[in-house]
Amino acid sequence: MPLVSLHVDDVHAIHIALFRNDTSMTQRFQDNYLGGPGTDVNHGSVVIDHVASYGTGVKDMIARLDKHGANSLRRQANAGDLLSPFIDAPNGMRVELNFDEAEAKADGIRPAMTAQDAVAETV
Predict the structure, then answer these.
(1) Residue 68 class from Cβ within 10 Å (0-12 exposed, 13-18 middle, 19+ buried)?
(2) pLDDT tens per residue across span 90-103
(3) Helix, strand, or coil (residue 87)
(4) Which one of 3.30.70.360, 3.30.720.110, 3.20.20.100, 3.40.50.300 gives the CATH number of domain 3-122?
(5) Is the sign of the CA dihedral 66, 117, 6, 39 positive or negative?
(6) What is the pTM of this model?
């Protein structure tokens, strides 16, 4: 999946992933990990599959998402160092919020799927 990463100094600050509609191993992993594309539209802003940023306060964010009934997927990425809720926007694009896994674990928040699980189910 094509990915653009923006950094502030040497800190990974945000990334943007383009939506691809193919049968590559990368796309099959992404479909498994995120449950497939959020839309069939293949033009305009929804060709961006998701936009990601990093933050703190995972417990409050999860509570806010749950309170408002947001459609979100809790994933664990990067060999277990990030807890990443993916929230579906109304237009089919996703927003990924990355939190330190140690913070999530301390707050008792667990992912529904890890990247390793998704890889194992893809091959």
Answers:
(1) exposed
(2) 777 788 899 999 99
(3) strand
(4) 3.30.720.110
(5) negative
(6) 0.73
